[in-house]
Amino acid sequence: MSVRYQPASAESILTVSGIRLGTASARIKNWERDDVLLIECEEGTIAAAVFTQNRFCAAPVLLDKEYLTLQRQYGKGLRGIIVNAGNANAGTGAEGFARAKQTSEEVARILLCAPEEVMVCSTGVIMEQLPVEKLIAVLPQAASRLDASSESWIRAARAIMTTDTVHKAISTQVIIDGEPVTVTGIAKGAGMIHPNMATMLSFIASDVPIAADVWQALWRDVVGVSFNAITIDGDTSTNDSLIAMATGQAKVPPIKNQHDPRLVLLKEALLDVALPLAQAIIRDGEGASKFITIHVEGHDVETCRKVAFSVAHSPLVKTAFFASDPNLGRIICAIGNATPEDLDAGRVSLWLGDVLVVDKGGRASSYREEDGQRVMQEEEIDIRIDLGHETHQNAKITIWTCDLSHDYVTINAEYRT
Amino acid sequence: MSVRYQPASAESILTVSGIRLGTASARIKNWERDDVLLIECEEGTIAAAVFTQNRFCAAPVLLDKEYLTLQRQYGKGLRGIIVNAGNANAGTGAEGFARAKQTSEEVARILLCAPEEVMVCSTGVIMEQLPVEKLIAVLPQAASRLDASSESWIRAARAIMTTDTVHKAISTQVIIDGEPVTVTGIAKGAGMIHPNMATMLSFIASDVPIAADVWQALWRDVVGVSFNAITIDGDTSTNDSLIAMATGQAKVPPIKNQHDPRLVLLKEALLDVALPLAQAIIRDGEGASKFITIHVEGHDVETCRKVAFSVAHSPLVKTAFFASDPNLGRIICAIGNATPEDLDAGRVSLWLGDVLVVDKGGRASSYREEDGQRVMQEEEIDIRIDLGHETHQNAKITIWTCDLSHDYVTINAEYRT
Prior knowledge:
Two copies of one chain form a homodimer.
Chain A: E1 19-24, E2 36-41, E3 46-51, H1 59-73, E4 80-87, H2 93-111, E5 118-125, H3 132-137, H4 139-144, H5 150-159, E6 168-176, E7 179-188, E8 201-206, H6 212-225, E9 241-246, H7 263-283, E10 291-297, H8 301-313, H9 315-322, H10 328-337, E11 349-352, E12 355-359, E13 362-363, H11 369-376, E14 380-386, E15 396-402, H12 406-412
Parallel strand pairs in A: 4-5, 8-9, 10-14
Antiparallel strand pairs in A: 1-2, 2-4, 3-9, 6-7, 7-8, 10-15, 11-12, 11-14, 12-13
């Protein structure tokens, strides 16, 4: 069950020149489905990546960071990504790192490239060694299925799922200098944690030709307002990995520096893929019955973000949303708990949907409970907070979250037998 | 229902020389019980106080901070405290502040002191004006019931309750220089939020003679390891107020400075009252079925605290506790999410009770699931985390929290009709 999210059909997915995808079933967990994804990138592809900040980052994340550094140091690109679902290879120490490395070496053998040109991603159970032999055994099969079609993207989106109820994939195309540039992406996770850690993974590919540092800066910006602007319960997993591949095969003159005006169009295209994918993760959050958008303005970026996440993380606010209860007191309390140094409570205003409920720190005189109820009874709800600070840069940030329901407790309080 | 907490009987409560308490029923909410507490302090009493950091602090908190400053500036003491339950007088703007001030003026008239010698505390509904006339109407009644007895302390503990299921009161006595010094305290709240905000309030009194700045520093330290070392869901209310009164009437030479060796004994006595009260708030947390102690060591104080609170706040860890599930992955993830800059995952060890479960970043080879289960099935559970950092000051901190259950969602997702 997801809040108003329709999974993509193959018809809506555009292929990306230079990318092929193949899946296989390693049976790492006892699932009747493909659980391994191999992505092959033609020579000339470069990668940008954003990883989890969790200090217990998994072995594959450690390896990928190392490899990305080597790629940039030696002017190499990305030639492949191997993803497995069912075991996160996290909390596995030196042995886990060795197994991640071994995986990259086996993939490199098959793709005829260097190991450091292969990135490894895992998602699933933590603190159990990766059954690497099972994974390696199916690599030839995944390679034999490498395919550039739209269907292969859908198969890929399915092979990386853990607690997701629907696959997540989307495409867009933009015209730059009269030529089409395609962006296609898939994502999974950050659903509620089952016994497995519901890692957030996303793989986006474009045929745009672009310099590596420009691509990394662009991807980081895009991630900042999409994948890093969603939250379910405040936890980031040990494995979050967001990788963007640029194959360079579009017939467009290369984008070489930060000031290229075509970056505006390209960024919009990336957002047209990243935002819906990130929001789909929320819509598919286990137990989610509400899709909540929180806008905060009227202060600097850091303060606006602190306030937004404080509201989004508050169990008291989230249970009120579950109850469709316009509980102003809890939202106000969550704003105050973000404790930004110079927040003047007497300047704060709050809207639920289009209804002004708090006017400069006090209950709005125009506010009637039934108007608040009307807004809160919808599945999709907008909150807008104006912190009313006059001297700081007037930032505007938007994040997305979901409610906290009985299903959340049920799913997460199941004993793991 | 509370996790193994027995409310105090009057027999166990010691009176404090210089303190009288009286209660009354103002019917601010439609409760069949006393909801107003008046505390009278004889001349010579000084106050120490710690308030909420929430930027939306309530009108009474703003007033009390002002009054405390005036008390210190002009060498005045505390002569009275007026507490009402049912309305927090928060989010009420200038009108709310005026009503809090008016309350202090009325109490001052009755106690024959100056308004700034009276502190005002409120707990209850947010964003509705305090029905101050109802409160003022019963002040004479509360004053007529002023009493120094043990029973009056119990009545006081009851009069300040909102979402608590049991009153919380405790006493201790220590011998200093051959003379008895008494410490008695009451507390309420920080239970789960009903439609009302479950503010944390505590009023502790001692007959010790002590200089005001020494008392404030001591109280702040004690609060730091007790009331500020508990958390239910990470939110602090708009009204949290922790007030310690020292009447000076014990027959002990006054404590005049920070280096007085008798402060060691006095601090222990304060902790013997503050710690059980703070823990009682957790044990009585609505929906709580587990009382969880989290010890963190092996790094500096700030890092240990960040890690401890990250674990205590994680809904994923808390639902696992509800399920009695020794889910190591979630605890590890929560530790990593505290993202202290120099956390080396490979140095972290974790014990559930006496069972080593994570040994330097990896699953302990000696760990068997059934040993973890044994610990998690208890109502009271200890977690110990060693961050293993060698170069920093080796701090040790302890905090307390409870689990996240279905009852939590049920209670907090009720529509407020």
